[in-house]
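Lab notebook, bench 4. Continuing the backlog of folding jobs that were queued last week. Each job is logged with the same field layout so the records can be merged later without manual cleanup. Today's entry covers Phosphate-specific transport system accessory protein PhoU, a 232-residue chain. Filled in by technician R.K.

JOB TYPE: sequence-to-structure
TARGET: Phosphate-specific transport system accessory protein PhoU
LENGTH: 232
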Amino acid sequence: MREIFRQELEQVGDDLVLMARHVQTAMEHASIALATGDLRLAERVIDDDRTVDQLEQSLDEQCVTLLARQQPVATDLRVVVSALRLSATLERMGDLARHVAQVARGRYPELAVPESFTDVFRRIADASNTVARDVVRLLEGRDLALAATIEADDDQLDALHRETFRLMLAPRENARPLDAQQVVDVTLLGRYYERFGDHGVSVARRIAYLVTGEAYGTTIPDGVDAQISRGA
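JOB STATUS: finished
OUTPUT FIELD FOLLOWS
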């Protein structure tokens, strides 16, 4: 019975990694669609978000079943409860990637990002993709060095988000004024990416809690080289 329980916990860990990989792909493709105006790619991201939703539902059902049937305690209970929260966070990250794709689709055949904002949103997309990639690696290996890296990446996203407001309020010389729709798009896109980074930090802090068993706060401890096996 105990071996079956361990296998079920491992399956929960595997499914979380799979979910994170879908989120990573979604954000990468959404950012490409935003930058290039690729309608088909944007629609694929929107359609594929159902897969992330289904994975969340499956994970939640697995975790509830484990709680009811196995009544885990101590570390095992922490793993199951954390998995429930992680699945919800990853689902929200998938939603945010879908929102980016929806903006790209909504402006087709035009580009949603004004020319004067192209560079800052390229850097925002790069930072968001880095967060998504590191979240996958963190769920695979539980290395707290990656957790700290995700926090640093989110700081960069926050700074770039502020840069979008600076560009709107103090546009560059000779830059074309933004119309009302462009202002809305830039504001929403900046918020979607910024929140994506915030949720990445939430994953990092939850993993830090799993590794250390201590309540996670505003920062990830530096210099921690703790890992736990998937599902432990």
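OBSERVATION: The chain has a mean pLDDT of 88.
SIGNED: R.K.
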